[in-house]
Specification:
158 residues, mainly alpha, 4 helices, elongated
Length: 158
């Protein structure tokens, strides 16, 4: 009690019993199921069965008469749980997208730097090739020399 300060809120340390990653995975599975045609089909069957049972069944089997207040409560409860689960799944997807975009941006920056480097290297090679004799240039020079030698041989022979 002597270490307790009155100007700061009391803190209680609870053990970390829940794994946020596991909760996120479960919420994504539920959100994926809620967004499927299979869920819509099941909900249609359940609601149709519920309404049919409460309209057609004998009076002693009916548990939710015509305004179907209990059905409304059940559907509202399902929606109140579904909405946060879907939002949680969307937040996790947004986090994954953010990481993917950052990795793509870094990859694109590396590619851009590599292409700039290669462009500079090619430019340097082109500049250096301006001073180097190419194969075509050497062949042309050799042909000219050969032609001159043939002319000199013709002149010396005549």
């Amino acid at each position: 009690m002597a270490n307790r300060r009155l100007d700061q809120p009391a803190t209680k340390s609870f053990p970390q019993a829940r794994d946020p990653e596991r909760i996120g995975q479960v919420s994504e599975r539920i959100a994926r199921f809620i967004g499927s045609w299979r869920f819509i089909a099941w909900m249609t069957v359940v609601v149709t069965g519920w309404v049919s049972l409460n309209i057609v069944a004998p009076q002693y089997l009916r548990y939710d008469e015509y305004p179907f207040i209990f059905l409304t409560l059940v559907l509202s409860l399902q929606a109140s749980y579904a909405a946060p689960l879907i939002l949680l799944a969307q937040n996790r997807q947004a986090d994954r997208d953010r990481v993917t975009y950052a990795e793509d941006r870094a990859h694109n920056e590396r590619l851009h730097a590599s292409s700039e480097y290669l462009a500079r290297e090619i430019s340097a090679i082109r500049a250096a090739l301006g001073d180097v004799a190419t194969r075509d240039y050497l062949r042309a020079e050799i042909r000219e020399l050969l032609a001159e030698i043939k002319e000199q041989d013709k002149g010396a022979a005549s």
